[in-house]
C-alpha cells in the first residue's frame, strides 16, 4: 500500500491540511465573536474625551479658553493580531504535525519510485502554494506567505531537475545527456517565471532580484547548450553582453522605471559574466588568434570608448588602452607566426609607438593613466627590441628604440616639474643600452676589436650627452618662443647628462688607437661643467682625465719611476689650476652659482696613483704630493688659524719627505742622522715663521721642535759613541750654552747645561765606574754640606735658595 504514490501523497498532505482546517475554524470563531461585541465608542461632550458626565448643576462651566479650543482627534490604534493561548497551541501543534509528516516522507523516500518522488515534490510544491494562500489570506502574514510561495516555486524547479536526473523526460534531457544545459535552462526559466508572478502578487524586492538572476542564468545555460566550443559561444555571449549593456547604460531603457536599480545591478553582473567568456577565449587563443578574437577585442574597445565618452570616466579609457595593447600584442604574435619572430617584435614596437601617439595627441583618449600605460608599453617594447636584435640585422630595432628614447626626452619640457625630473633621470637609460648593444653587434658583425668598439661607442655617447646638455642649457637663447611655452623648472636633465657622461669617461675602456678621444671628451666635459650653475660634475671629468692618463701609461713600457713622475707633473698642474682659477675657496657661492674646486677635490686620485711601491722614489714623491695637497687647501677665505695649521702639516710632511729623499743619501749613518736632525730644526724655524702672527704659539711650537732636535742630537752622541762625534756634539751644546747665556734664555741654558752634563757623565762612565764606592759617598756628603751651607746663608740674608736663584736669573726669559 505504501508503494502507491497517491496514498503516499495523501499521507504527506494530511498533516498539512489538518492545520489549515484548524486555522479556518479558529478564524471563523474569532470573526463571530467580534461581530457580537462591537467596541464601545465614547462620544465627545463639551469638547472633552471622557466617560459620560453625570449632571452636576453646581459645577462651573469650563473656561472660555477650553470652550473655544478645537476638538482633538483620537489617535488611531494600531492594528495588532492578538497572540492568544489558542494561537500558540495551534502553532506548536502545526509544527509537530509538519515535522511528523516530513519524517514519514523521508523514511519512505527510498521505497518510492522515480515518478513517485517527482510527484511527492510536486505535491510539496502544491501544499506550499496552498499554505502561502491561506497564511496570506487569513492570517495576514505577508512575509510568511511569500516564503511559502518561494518554497513552492523552488519545489517546481526541483521536481523538474529530479525528473531530468532520473531520465523521466528522455536520455537527452537529463544530466548525463546532451541537453544538460537545456535542462538547467528550463529549470531556471521556470524559477524566473514563478518569481515574476510572485513579484506581481507580493511586490517584494527580493523576488524581482531573484527573477532577474534566474533569467540571466537561463540565458547563460541556453547559450552553453548551443555548442561546447568556446569559439562558437564566445560571440553569442559577446552579443548578449553588448545588448544588455546598451539597454541598461546606452539607451537607458529602464531609467525611471520601478525596478531600475535591480535591473541595473543584475544586468551589470550578467553582462560582466557574459563578457568573461569572450575574454577567456581571447587569452585561450592568444598564440593562435582567429578572426573571432579580433572581433571580440574590437567590440570591447568600441564599447569602452563609447561608454567612456558617455560617462566621462577615465577608468574606462584606461581599460580600453590596456585592451588595445593586448590587441597589438596578439597581432604581433600572429605576425611572428606567419613570418619571423623579429618582425613580430618590430611590429609590436611600432604598434606601441602608434598607440602612445594616439593617446598623446587625441584629446578624448588623453589622460594621465592612458598616457602612462601606453608609454610604459612603448618602453618595454624598446627594451625587447634592443635585446632581441642580432648582429645580422639590428638597425631597425635600434631605430625604434631611439624613437622611444626621443619620446621620453620630450617630457623634459613637460609642464609638471615632477615629470620633468623623472624624464631627466630616465632619458639617458635607453640610449645607454642602445650604445652598448650596438657596439657589441658591430664588433661581432664586422670583426672589430671589442675594446676599440666600446671605447669609440661610449666616447661618442658621452659626446652626445654633453652636446644635449649644452643644447638644452642654451635653448632659451636661440629658441626663446619655445622656451616660453615649455619652460624648464629645474636642471635635473643637465646634471644627469653630465654625471652619466662623466662616469662613462671614467669607466670607458681606452683603446690604444683611440687614446686621445676620451681625453678630449674630458676637456670638453670640464669646460661645459664650469658653465653650469653648479660645477660639481667637473669632478668627474677631472677624475676621468687621470683615468685616461693611467690607461695611456699602462699601455706603455715605461718603468714605475716614470709613471710616478708623470702623475706628479699632472698633480702639480691640477694644483696650479686650483690656485689660479679656484683660489677664492673650495666651495664658493657667487651670483646664484655654486662653484667647487674640482682640481683640489680630485687631486687625491693622482696621489694614490703615483704611489707605485715602497721605494725611496715613490715614498718621496708621495709625501711631497701630500704636502703640496695640504698647502693647496689654503684659499682666500681660509681662516688664519686653519692656514697656519695646514702650513705646519705641509712643513712636517716636507721634512719627512726630505728624510726619505732618494738623492744625497750619505753612506754614514752618523751624517744621515745629523742631516735629519737639521731638517727637524728647519721645521722649527718654519713654524716660527708660519705662526708669526701668533707669538705665543710660534714660540711654543718652535721651541718644542728645537728641543726635539736637541734631544735627538743628544741621543746621537750617546748612540754613536765616538770621540769625534762626542766632541762635535759637545761643541754644539757648548755653543748653545754660550748663546743662551748671552740671550739670557732659561730654556736653552737648562737644556744645554743638562745635555753637557749628561754627555760628560756618559763619556767618563768608565772612569767613574772604576772609582771606589766611598768616593761617591764622599761626594754625596760634600753636596749635602754645600746645600746646607747655602740654605743657612740664604736664611741669614732673609732669602731662600729658590728666591736667591730667581734673583740671579731675574733678567732671563724662558
TrEMBL record:
<feature type="transmembrane region" description="Helical">
    <location>
        <begin position="88"/>
        <end position="110"/>
    </location>
</feature>
<feature type="transmembrane region" description="Helical">
    <location>
        <begin position="148"/>
        <end position="166"/>
    </location>
</feature>
<feature type="transmembrane region" description="Helical">
    <location>
        <begin position="315"/>
        <end position="337"/>
    </location>
</feature>
<feature type="transmembrane region" description="Helical">
    <location>
        <begin position="646"/>
        <end position="665"/>
    </location>
</feature>
<feature type="transmembrane region" description="Helical">
    <location>
        <begin position="372"/>
        <end position="389"/>
    </location>
</feature>
<feature type="transmembrane region" description="Helical">
    <location>
        <begin position="748"/>
        <end position="765"/>
    </location>
</feature>
<feature type="transmembrane region" description="Helical">
    <location>
        <begin position="289"/>
        <end position="308"/>
    </location>
</feature>
<feature type="transmembrane region" description="Helical">
    <location>
        <begin position="565"/>
        <end position="582"/>
    </location>
</feature>
<feature type="transmembrane region" description="Helical">
    <location>
        <begin position="230"/>
        <end position="249"/>
    </location>
</feature>
<keyword id="KW-1133">Transmembrane helix</keyword>
<feature type="transmembrane region" description="Helical">
    <location>
        <begin position="618"/>
        <end position="634"/>
    </location>
</feature>
<protein>
    <recommendedName>
        <fullName>DUF2339 domain-containing protein</fullName>
    </recommendedName>
</protein>
<feature type="transmembrane region" description="Helical">
    <location>
        <begin position="178"/>
        <end position="198"/>
    </location>
</feature>
<keyword id="KW-0472">Membrane</keyword>
<feature type="transmembrane region" description="Helical">
    <location>
        <begin position="116"/>
        <end position="136"/>
    </location>
</feature>
<feature type="transmembrane region" description="Helical">
    <location>
        <begin position="343"/>
        <end position="365"/>
    </location>
</feature>
<feature type="transmembrane region" description="Helical">
    <location>
        <begin position="455"/>
        <end position="480"/>
    </location>
</feature>
<feature type="transmembrane region" description="Helical">
    <location>
        <begin position="703"/>
        <end position="720"/>
    </location>
</feature>
<feature type="transmembrane region" description="Helical">
    <location>
        <begin position="492"/>
        <end position="508"/>
    </location>
</feature>
<feature type="transmembrane region" description="Helical">
    <location>
        <begin position="425"/>
        <end position="443"/>
    </location>
</feature>
<feature type="transmembrane region" description="Helical">
    <location>
        <begin position="671"/>
        <end position="691"/>
    </location>
</feature>
<keyword id="KW-0812">Transmembrane</keyword>
<feature type="transmembrane region" description="Helical">
    <location>
        <begin position="726"/>
        <end position="743"/>
    </location>
</feature>
<feature type="transmembrane region" description="Helical">
    <location>
        <begin position="771"/>
        <end position="789"/>
    </location>
</feature>
<feature type="transmembrane region" description="Helical">
    <location>
        <begin position="594"/>
        <end position="612"/>
    </location>
</feature>
<feature type="transmembrane region" description="Helical">
    <location>
        <begin position="205"/>
        <end position="224"/>
    </location>
</feature>
<feature type="transmembrane region" description="Helical">
    <location>
        <begin position="261"/>
        <end position="283"/>
    </location>
</feature>
<feature type="transmembrane region" description="Helical">
    <location>
        <begin position="6"/>
        <end position="26"/>
    </location>
</feature>
<feature type="transmembrane region" description="Helical">
    <location>
        <begin position="395"/>
        <end position="413"/>
    </location>
</feature>
Amino acid at each position: 500500500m505504501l508503494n502507491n504514490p497517491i496514498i503516499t501523497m495523501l499521507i504527506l498532505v494530511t498533516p498539512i491540511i489538518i492545520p489549515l482546517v484548524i486555522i479556518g475554524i479558529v478564524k471563523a470563531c474569532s470573526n463571530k465573536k467580534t461581530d457580537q461585541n462591537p467596541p464601545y465608542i465614547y462620544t465627545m461632550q463639551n469638547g472633552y474625551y471622557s466617560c459620560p458626565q453625570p449632571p452636576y448643576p453646581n459645577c462651573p462651566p469650563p473656561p472660555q479658553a477650553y470652550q473655544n479650543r478645537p476638538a482633538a482627534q483620537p489617535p488611531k490604534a494600531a492594528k495588532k493580531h492578538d497572540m492568544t493561548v489558542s494561537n500558540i497551541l495551534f502553532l506548536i501543534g502545526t509544527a509537530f504535525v509538519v515535522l511528523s509528516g516530513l519524517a514519514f516522507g523521508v523514511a519512505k523516500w527510498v521505497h518510492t519510485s522515480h515518478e513517485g518522488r517527482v510527484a511527492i515534490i510536486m505535491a510539496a510544491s502544491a501544499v506550499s502554494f496552498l499554505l502561502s494562500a491561506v497564511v496570506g489570506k487569513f492570517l495576514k502574514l505577508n512575509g510568511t506567505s511569500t516564503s511559502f510561495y518561494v518554497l513552492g516555486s523552488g519545489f517546481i524547479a526541483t521536481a523538474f531537475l529530479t525528473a531530468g536526473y532520473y531520465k523521466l523526460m528522455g536520455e537527452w534531457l537529463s544530466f548525463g545527456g546532451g541537453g544538460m544545459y537545456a535542462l538547467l535552462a528550463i529549470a531556471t526559466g521556470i524559477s524566473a517565471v514563478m518569481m515574476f508572478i510572485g513579484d506581481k502578487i507580493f511586490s517584494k524586492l527580493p523576488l524581482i532580484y531573484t527573477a532577474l538572476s534566474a533569467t540571466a542564468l537561463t540565458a547563460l545555460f541556453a547559450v552553453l547548450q548551443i555548442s561546447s566550443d568556446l569559439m562558437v559561444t564566445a560571440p553569442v555571449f559577446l552579443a548578449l553582453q553588448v545588448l544588455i549593456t546598451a539597454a541598461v547604460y546606452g539607451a537607458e531603457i529602464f531609467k525611471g522605471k520601478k525596478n531600475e536599480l535591480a535591473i541595473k545591478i543584475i544586468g551589470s553582473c550578467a553582462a560582466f559574466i557574459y563578457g568573461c567568456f569572450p575574454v577567456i577565449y581571447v587569452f585561450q587563443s592568444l598564440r593562435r588568434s582567429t578572426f573571432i578574437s579580433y572581433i571580440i577585442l574590437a567590440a570591447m574597445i568600441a564599447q569602452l570608448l563609447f561608454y567612456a565618452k558617455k560617462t566621462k570616466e577615465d577608468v574606462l579609457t584606461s581599460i580600453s588602452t590596456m585592451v588595445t595593447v593586448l590587441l597589438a600584442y596578439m597581432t604581433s604574435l600572429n605576425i611572428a607566426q606567419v613570418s619571423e619572430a623579429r618582425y613580430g617584435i618590430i611590429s609590436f614596437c611600432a604598434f606601441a609607438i602608434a598607440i602612445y601617439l594616439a593617446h598623446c595627441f587625441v584629446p578624448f583618449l588623453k589622460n594621465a593613466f592612458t598616457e602612462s600605460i601606453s608609454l610604459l608599453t612603448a618602453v618595454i617594447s624598446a627594451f625587447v627590441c634592443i635585446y632581441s636584435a642580432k648582429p645580422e640585422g639590428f638597425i631597425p630595432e635600434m631605430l625604434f628604440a631611439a624613437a622611444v628614447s626621443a619620446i621620453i626626452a620630450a617630457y623634459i619640457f613637460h609642464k609638471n616639474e615632477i615629470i620633468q625630473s623623472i624624464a631627466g633621470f630616465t632619458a639617458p637609460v635607453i640610449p645607454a643600452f642602445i650604445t652598448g648593444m650596438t657596439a657589441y653587434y658591430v664588433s661581432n658583425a664586422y670583426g672589430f676589436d671589442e675594446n676599440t668598439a666600446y671605447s669609440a661607442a661610449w666616447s661618442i655617447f658621452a659626446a652626445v650627452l654633453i652636446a644635449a646638455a649644452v643644447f638644452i642649457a642654451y635653448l632659451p637663447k636661440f629658441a626663446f618662443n619655445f622656451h616660453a611655452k615649455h619652460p624648464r623648472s629645474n636642471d635635473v636633465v643637465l646634471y644627469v647628462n653630465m654625471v652619466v657622461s662623466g662616469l662613462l669617461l671614467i669607466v670607458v675602456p681606452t683603446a690604444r688607437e683611440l687614446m686621445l678621444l676620451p681625453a678630449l671628451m674630458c676637456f670638453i666635459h670640464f669646460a661645459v661643467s664650469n658653465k653650469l650653475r653648479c660645477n660639481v660634475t667637473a669632478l668627474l671629468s677631472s677624475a676621468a682625465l687621470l683615468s685616461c692618463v693611467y690607461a695611456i701609461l699602462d699601455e706603455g713600457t715605461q718603468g714605475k719611476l716614470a709613471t710616478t713622475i708623470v702623475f706628479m707633473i699632472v698633480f702639480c698642474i691640477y694644483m696650479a689650476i686650483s690656485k689660479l682659477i679656484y683660489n677664492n675657496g673650495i666651495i664658493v657661492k657667487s651670483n646664484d652659482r655654486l662653484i667647487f674646486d674640482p682640481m683640489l677635490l680630485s687631486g687625491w686620485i693622482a696621489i694614490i696613483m703615483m704611489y707605485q711601491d715602497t721605494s725611496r722614489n715613490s715614498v718621496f714623491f708621495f709625501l711631497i704630493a701630500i704636502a703640496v695637497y695640504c698647502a693647496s687647501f689654503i684659499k682666500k677665505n681660509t681662516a688664519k688659524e686653519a692656514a697656519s695649521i695646514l702650513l705646519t702639516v705641509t712643513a712636517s710632511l716636507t721634512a719627512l719627505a726630505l728624510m726619505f729623499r732618494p738623492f744625497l743619501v750619505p753612506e754614514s749613518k752618523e751624517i744621515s742622522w745629523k742631516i735629519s736632525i737639521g731638517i727637524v730644526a728647519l721645521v722649527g724655524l718654519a713654524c716660527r715663521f708660519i705662526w708669526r702672527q701668533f707669538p705665543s704659539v710660534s714660540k711654543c711650537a718652535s721651541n718644542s721642535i728645537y728641543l726635539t732636535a736637541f734631544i735627538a742630537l743628544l741621543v746621537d752622541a750617546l748612540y754613536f759613541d765616538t770621540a769625534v762625534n762626542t766632541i762635535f756634539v759637545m761643541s754644539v751644546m757648548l755653543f748653545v750654552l754660550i748663546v743662551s747665556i748671552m740671550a739670557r734664555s732659561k730654556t736653552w741654558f737648562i737644556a744645554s747645561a743638562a745635555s753637557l752634563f749628561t754627555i760628560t757623565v756618559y763619556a767618563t762612565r768608565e772612569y767613574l765606574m772604576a772609582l771606589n764606592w766611598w768616593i761617591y759617598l764622599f761626594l754625596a756628603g760634600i753636596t749635602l754640606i754645600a746645600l746646607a751651607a747655602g740654605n743657612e746663608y740664604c736664611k741669614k740674608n732673609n732669602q731662600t735658595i729658590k728666591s736667591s736663584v730667581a734673583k740671579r736669573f731675574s733678567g732671563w726669559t724662558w
